[in-house]
Structures are given as structure tokens and as C-alpha cells.
Inverse folding.
């Protein structure tokens, strides 16, 4: 009985060893006597004990491989790029993916290095940042052509980091800061110009209105003086006496205005009543002298014009006389 139990136990163990499970999104390679036999997918599976064996497990999920590459740009700047490759095994070509490539990650990395180091040296540093998507598309296209043969599908290729040398980054930051300061200075200068122009326009308008006000004031004063002289003439006061009275009145009005302000430090000299009379006398004398000068200037102009006419007539007469002699 003991040998029988042993045989039955061995058979049970062997039977149990023939059952196995495969996880979801995985595939198991079964070899029989060292030769590929079949591919088992997720679920409960069975194999012949001692004849079949699990050669390996293939992951069918999307995987990501990050590749760090250092290369040179067209403007001789060394830059480090981080390229993320998302790929998976084609479910119908698990056998090729398992047997044709021993180290698929190394193979993918080699292709990425080859493509990136062929594309980036064609671009300057600024274009590397602007056209990183073009580099990623080129890497994906090259990888798809190469890796499909081995049962791999390239899902996506991403340039996730571009890292120039630290000195280059500092220089780029300084250039950017200088550009922004330049723009800020231009805006500040324009704002200052607008303020200056607006202030100048306001001052010009103020001066114009102030001049207009002064002109209106003087016109009204002159009109008032004319009316005052007319009123005084009607009561028998001649124009000279009326002018003297008006000047004296304005003199006292000025003194009153100066004295009305207790904090005023203005001194009016001379402040005697006779000063107004002297002022009027000087003004009348000035007007008389001015009129006399104008009359003399007018008479001189008339005399000069008469002399010019006489001289012109004399010249015309002599020219006629000379021409007569020439004819004779």
C-alpha cells in the first residue's frame, strides 16, 4: 500500500504543478523541451508537467522609458534633453517581442540617441525649445519603423525637459531681463512724454486765457476811462484836468489796496499825491513828444519822396537830351 500511496501522491503533485494562472495584461511563453510551444493569456491555464515550462512573462501594458541625452545645437550650445518613450508589446506579436530582442530598453535607447543627435544639431538653441514637438515626431517615426519589426508599438514620444548649460541659462535670463527693462523704459518714456505734452497744452491754454483776461480787463479799464472823461467834460472839466483827477483817484485806490492787507510787504514809492500829478505831466509830455516825432517822420518821408521824383524827372530829361545828340 505504501508504494501505491507514493505513486498517487506523485501524480497529484504533478497534476497540481500543471495548473497555473496568468495575470491580466500579461502573456506567458510556454516552451516544450526548449522549443516555443504556445502563448497563454490571462486566466487559469494548464501545461504538461516536466514537458512544458514557462519560459517567461511578457508585459502587455503601456510602459515608459525615460532617456537622458546630451547633445550640441547648431550654435554650439550643449544641452541635455529628457525624452520619454511610451510603448507596448503588440498583442499578436508577443513571440517576436520575447525572442527577437533580449534587451528592448537598450534597443529603444540607441534609436533615440541616434535620432536626437541627428535632429538637434540642425537647430539653434531657441529653435530647440520652439520645435521640440518636431523632434518628438521624428523620434517616434524612426522608432516605429524600427521597433514594429520586433513586435513593439510606439504609442507616444515626449520631450519632457530641455536643460542647457547653467551659464547659457543665466545669459538667456539676462537677455530676457534686458528686453523687459527696455520695453518698460519705452513705456515710461512715452508716459512721461504724454504728461509733458498735456502739461504744456494746459499751460498754453492757461496763458491764452490769462492774456485774454488781461486784454479784456485793460479794454474795460480804457472804456471806463473814456466814459469818465466824457462825464467830467460834461460838467465843465477839460480833458487834461479829468485825466489828472482819474490818475489821482487810481493812485489813492492803489494805496488803499496796499494798506488793506496787514501782512503785505509792498511799498509804493513815491506815495505823495503830487506823484500822480507828476506822472500825468510826464505822460502828457511823452504823448506830445511822440506825436511831434511822428509828424516830423511823416514830413521827412514826404520830402524824400519829392526829391526822388525830381531826381527821376531830371534823369529822364537828360537821357532824352543825350539821345538827341547821338541822333545828330
Amino acid at each position: 500500500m505504501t508504494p501505491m500511496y507514493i505513486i498517487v501522491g506523485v501524480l497529484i503533485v504533478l497534476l497540481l504543478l500543471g495548473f497555473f494562472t496568468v495575470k491580466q495584461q500579461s502573456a506567458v511563453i510556454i516552451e516544450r523541451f526548449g522549443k516555443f510551444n504556445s502563448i497563454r493569456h490571462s486566466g487559469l491555464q494548464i501545461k504538461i508537467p516536466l514537458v512544458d515550462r514557462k519560459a517567461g512573462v511578457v508585459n502587455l501594458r503601456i510602459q515608459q522609458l525615460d532617456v537622458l541625452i546630451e547633445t550640441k545645437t547648431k550654435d554650439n550650445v550643449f544641452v541635455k534633453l529628457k525624452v520619454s518613450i511610451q510603448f507596448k508589446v503588440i498583442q499578436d506579436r508577443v513571440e517576436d517581442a520575447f525572442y527577437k530582442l533580449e534587451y528592448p530598453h537598450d534597443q529603444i535607447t540607441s534609436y533615440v540617441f541616434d535620432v536626437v543627435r541627428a535632429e538637434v544639431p540642425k537647430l539653434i538653441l531657441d529653435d530647440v525649445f520652439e520645435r521640440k514637438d518636431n523632434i518628438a515626431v521624428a523620434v517616434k517615426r524612426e522608432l516605429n519603423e524600427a521597433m514594429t519589426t520586433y513586435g513593439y508599438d510606439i504609442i507616444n514620444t515626449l520631450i519632457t525637459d530641455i536643460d542647457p548649460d547653467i551659464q547659457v541659462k543665466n545669459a538667456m535670463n539676462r537677455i530676457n531681463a534686458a528686453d523687459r527693462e527696455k520695453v518698460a523704459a519705452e513705456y515710461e518714456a512715452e508716459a512721461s512724454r504724454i504728461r509733458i505734452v498735456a502739461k504744456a497744452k494746459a499751460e498754453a491754454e492757461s496763458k491764452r486765457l490769462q492774456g485774454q483776461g488781461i486784454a479784456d480787463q485793460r479794454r474795460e479799464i480804457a472804456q471806463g476811462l473814456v466814459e469818465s472823461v466824457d462825464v467830467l467834460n460834461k460838467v465843465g472839466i477839460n480833458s487834461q484836468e479829468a485825466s489828472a483827477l482819474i490818475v489821482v483817484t487810481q493812485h489813492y485806490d492803489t494805496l488803499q489796496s496796499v494798506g488793506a492787507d496787514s501782512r503785505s510787504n509792498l511799498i509804493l514809492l513815491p506815495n505823495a499825491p503830487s506823484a500822480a500829478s507828476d506822472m500825468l505831466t510826464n505822460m502828457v509830455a511823452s504823448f506830445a513828444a511822440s506825436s511831434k516825432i511822428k509828424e516830423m517822420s511823416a514830413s521827412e518821408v514826404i520830402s524824400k519822396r519829392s526829391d526822388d521824383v525830381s531826381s527821376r524827372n531830371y534823369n529822364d530829361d537828360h537821357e532824352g537830351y543825350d539821345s538827341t545828340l547821338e541822333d545828330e
Notes: Confidence is low (pLDDT under 50) at residues 320-328. The first helix runs from residue 2 to 18.
